[in-house]
Design brief:
With 216 residues, the protein is an alpha/beta fold. It contains nine helices and eight strands. Strand 3 and strand 4 form a beta hairpin. The model has no long low-confidence stretch (mean pLDDT 92).
């Protein structure tokens, strides 16, 4: 059974690569970033801001939190939220929500429950260090900040979202800083992770690089 952990910063191409890899191998894809964004969106819709709350508040949100995935589409309680969770107003706060210890604990448990006993490709920021820490297949995918910002900017435009490249760069820099300095769920490469720079690689080239180094 192969379980593949792909970590890295925003805009590194993790979601696209993970999808292509899962399709190539014919196994489950779990986009953990989409899970956190969906949770942040749900909280925002209920006027729950990213600040300290009793655990009971987070538990209440999780009690009504049902996610489904179909291809690259994400559904929250039956609603397709795939585009909305990539909107700048969600991107700006998702890192704050995911930094709360109880939120992180509940989400990690959910991710591990979904992945238990089955082949899976999982991407995020703490997959190799926390969620799939025992997997021998850990990869850290990154790219230059300029390339990552350009990718996210183009994604926004393609989805019909308003986007300004300079603003995207600033937001991405803040997101990187926040993710790398969290007390929980910190973005850091596992010592066992294989580093891949996707700045000048196509998706297929990254997928091939991962497959060539899989431990089956």
């Amino acid at each position: 059974m192969v379980q593949i952990a792909i970590d890295g910063p925003a805009g590194a191409g993790k979601s696209t690569v993970a999808k292509a890899l899962a399709e190539r191998l014919g196994i489950l894809l779990l986009d953990t970033g989409a899970m956190y964004r969906a949770f942040a969106l749900m909280a925002i819709r209920q006027d729950i801001m990213p600040e300290e709350h009793p655990d009971s508040v987070w538990d209440r949100l999780f009690d009504g939190f049902k996610l489904d995935f179909a291809g690259q589409r994400t559904f929250l309680n039956g609603e397709d939220i795939s585009d909305e969770i990539r909107a700048p107003y969600v991107e700006a706060v998702v890192s704050q929500f995911s930094a709360f210890r109880h939120v992180r604990s509940r989400m990690v448990a959910l991710q591990q429950e979904i992945a238990a006993g089955r082949p899976v490709v999982m991407e995020g920021r703490d997959i190799g260090t926390v969620v799939l820490k025992d997997s021998p297949n850990k990869f850290y995918l990154s790219a230059s900040e300029e390339v990552r910002a350009q990718r996210r900017h183009l994604q926004n435009l393609q989805k019909g979202l308003e986007s300004d490249l300079d603003s995207v760069k600033e937001l991405m820099h803040k997101r990187d800083t926040s993710d790398m300095n969290k007390e929980v769920g910190q973005l850091v490469a596992s010592p066992e992770s294989i580093y891949i720079d996707s700045s000048e690689k196509t998706v297929d080239e990254v997928v091939e690089a991962i497959i060539s180094q899989l431990v089956i």
